[in-house]
Amino acid sequence: MKAEIYEVITKKKEFSQLPRKDVEIAYSSFEKRQTSEEEKIRLTRGLLHKVFGAFLSRKLLGPKNKSFEWILRKHISTRERIEFYPEIYSGILKGLGKRISVIDLGAGVNGFSYNFFRKAGFDVSYSGVEAIGQLVELTNNYFEKEKINGRMLHLSLFDIEEIKKIIKKIEKPRVIFLFKVVDSLEMLSRDFSKKLISEISSLADRIVVSFATESMIKRKKFYAKRTWFLEFLKENYSILYDFELGKERYIVFKK
Ligand SMILES: C[S@@+](CC[C@H](N)C(=O)[O-])C[C@H]1O[C@@H](n2cnc3c(N)ncnc32)[C@H](O)[C@@H]1O
After folding, report:
1. Do both 188 and 143 map to the same domain?
2. Distance, CA 198 to ligand 1 centroid (Å)?
3. Is 78 touching ligand 1 by the criterion CB < 6 Å?
4. Residues 147, 74, 69, 206: what is their CA dihedral angle, to the nearest 10 degrees?
5. pLDDT (tens digit, 9 = 90+) per residue, 77-136?
């Protein structure tokens, strides 16, 4: 992708801090089409909006110093989880001891749930990876202010080698979260979630994948893929726990 095209696409504020890799992958879906450059840019922005746009609510970036609950309620993914967090974290982290490293891939604002690790009795060292720079900054400011043992990294999950390097440096036991991220990854690159999991699974003591279970018309297409995805997990991994809480299904597995 030419530098000028990247610049035009990311002129829009909502895409202004996305890693180049994600923009490139989105653009490559339309690059070979027999259409004008303007149209390709329009289509790329449309796809990026589907993958990332919904998660950068203006409300989140508005007034500063809001409570962690306020932030969790403003994000589409964390909102429905709030009352279940202690149960979710106890359910997925049990059996690994008290001190655990969590690596949250495609974290969104889930770092604001850090207090729930404490409530569930865990002393967590948290590393989140997120493509939307604004959410990285928002969460890092919160960690700093609250002196939380956490950090957010601004990186694309498509940058597998970098992700692996980061994970290797993190203390064990390591638990990797992929909460409601598989659908986003598949939208940009089919089968990528399978590749990502295959590459990082030997570095983790546990991986947790979650899916929204509420049926939305737009999500219908992913249900078919999910069956295939679940088959992939069953064939290649040992499933430790599989449960549903608050319109979300959590599958905990290991290599
Ligand atoms: C549905 S949200 C889920 C957020 C969070 N995991 C949760 O469940 O609360 C998906 C998140 O993944 C991020 N994401 C999607 N594709 C990504 C990529 N290639 N690299 C890094 N982050 C990505 C999006 O920006 C968004 O914040």
Report:
1. yes
2. 19
3. yes
4. -70
5. 899 899 999 999 999 999 999 999 999 999 999 999 999 999 999 999 999 999 999 999
